[in-house]
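dude i think i finally got it to work??
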Amino acid sequence: MQFLKTIFWVLVAVVGALFSFANWKPVDIRLWGDLVWSPPLPFPILCAFLLGLLPMLVIHRATRWSLRRRLDNANRQLTDSFPPQPAVPVTTVPPGAAPIVPPPGVA
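look at this
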């Protein structure tokens, strides 16, 4: 599965690089007033992608952290409620006791 994930991300990177090389033209972005910023086209696209990705990534990580804490706490409570049982001692046949013999026909 890791192999497929790696192939997917390599393909995404190659497509992104090809797009960047083909569209490396300055784009005018009007900020405020008469202030104009002219970055190459891939840069604003990358910024927009990261602005959408980063909040979702933070939410995902926070949710995983919270759920992992809850699961660890539940496991700890479960372990504490059932303490380990002492080992059952093996009973030995006292000397002079009659051995247990199975009935005939039972192997």
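The chain has a mean pLDDT of 88.
im so relieved honestly
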